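Possible regression after last week's pipeline update?

I re-ran a chain I had predicted before the update to compare outputs. Posting the input and the new output here so someone can diff against the archived version. Not blocking, just want to make sure nothing changed silently.
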Amino acid sequence: MGNSIPTRISALPLRGFADRYIVNLSENEPKYSASSVFYPYQHHDYYAMDSLFLSPFKEEEIWDFHAVSHFQLGTFGFFALRAFLRQSLGLSAVQATGLSRQWRSHLAKVQLDDYPISFLDFIPSLVSSESRFETEFLTESGLEKRISLKHEKEGKATMIHMAFGNKESMPLGVSEFMQDFLSFSQKEHSIVTAYIRKENSSYLYMNGREGNPRVFYRESNVEHANFLFLVANLEKKKLLR
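New output (post-update):
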C-alpha cells in the first residue's frame, strides 16, 4: 500500500432522495482503489443502508462506527453482507473500528469467528450460549452458506438472514422465501417491515395498520455474486383475553 492516503467516502443523502448518495471518488481510479475509510451514521432507512453497504468495493476498507452509537442488528447485517461479498471476490477482510460499548457487548452474542471481519476494537467473549443471537430459520434458499440472527428487546425484535454460494438445486423464489419466513416468524411475532435483497433487486415489505401489506420492488444497476439477504422488524403478538 505504501504511503497512499485513504479516500474518505461519506454517505450524504441528497435532499428528497433518501436512497441516493454523493460519493467522493476520482473519475479515473482503478477497479479497486488502494484503501478507503467509510463513516456510516445512525438511521433506520434500509434503502440508504443498501446504497452505502453495497456501494463499490475498495481493495482495503476500514469502517468507522463512531457515529452509530446504538447497536442495530440491521446495520450489522448489511455490514456482514458486504464482508461476505468481498470474501467471495478474494478481497481482504473488512476492518471495523469505533464500536461503542453497546455494540461490543451485543457483538459478544454473535459467533464472530464465522465472519470475514477484522475488529480493531476488543470484543469480549460470551461464556454462556443462552443469550446468543443465532436462531434456526430453516429454509431451502438454493444457496450453500446460511446465517440467521435475532435480537429481541421489550416486545420488539429484529431478525436478519443471509445466504450465499451456489448449489445445484434451483434457487428459492422471493415469494416462496417470504412464505417460509412468515410461517417461521409469525408464531410469536407480527411483521412490521421486512427488506429482502438479492444480487440484482430488492423488495421492501410494509405491513399497514389496517392489515394490508404493501411491497415495493426495485432493481439494482450493479450485480453481485448470488446472495439472499433479509432484515425484518417484528412485534410481539398480543395475547387475546
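Follow-up from reviewer: compared with the archived run. The longest strand covers residues 143-153. Marking as no regression found.
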